[in-house]
Amino acid sequence: MTALASSINSVRIAAAAADRMKAQDIVAYDVSAQIGITDCMLLASASNERQVLAIAEEIEKDLYTKGGKLQPRGREGVQEAQWILLDYGDFIVHVMHEEARDFYHLERLWRDCPRIDLELPDAPVDTADAD
């Protein structure tokens, strides 16, 4: 099983918004074969709480305006802005403070899943995640 094309397109819209807001380490995984409740996971980092919140807001705005009026089913972590989770059903967005991302290292959970080409400018060629 692979992620729906609509999910991948939405994740690319979200990644472009995050990139525009200067997010770091933007990566997405096709997790559809491992879990049945979602297709994709997008991860992005920021260096402070204000930037975490700004990135999440920009992602929400772009998915609404460019993604067919998509709105998250759930939003978690907005008050603390250390780790904001946006649940769109078919895909999930994690915008994390870099310290939280380093601590939880979610990439290790999905490292066996295919990475999604986000088609971002100047994105590095697919590299293996180091442990």
For the CA atoms, what is the radius of gyration? 13 Å
* Neighbour order of strands in the largest sheet: 1-2-5-4-3
User: Can you identify the CATH superfamily?
Assistant: Beta Polymerase, domain 2
Q: Give me the secondary-structure category.
A: alpha+beta
InterPro entries: Iojap/RsfS/C7orf30, NT_sf
Main location: cytoplasm
Keywords: Cytoplasm, Repressor, Translation regulation
Family: Belongs to the Iojap/RsfS family.
Describe it.
The chain is α+β, with helices and mostly antiparallel strands and 131 residues long. The protein is built from four helices and five strands. The protein has one domain: Beta Polymerase, domain 2, CATH 3.30.460.10. Strand 3 and strand 4 form a beta hairpin. The longest helix is centred in the middle third of the chain and has 17 residues. The C terminus is likely disordered. Keywords: Cytoplasm, Repressor, Translation regulation. Interacts with ribosomal protein uL14 (rplN). One of its GO terms (molecular function) is ribosomal large subunit binding.
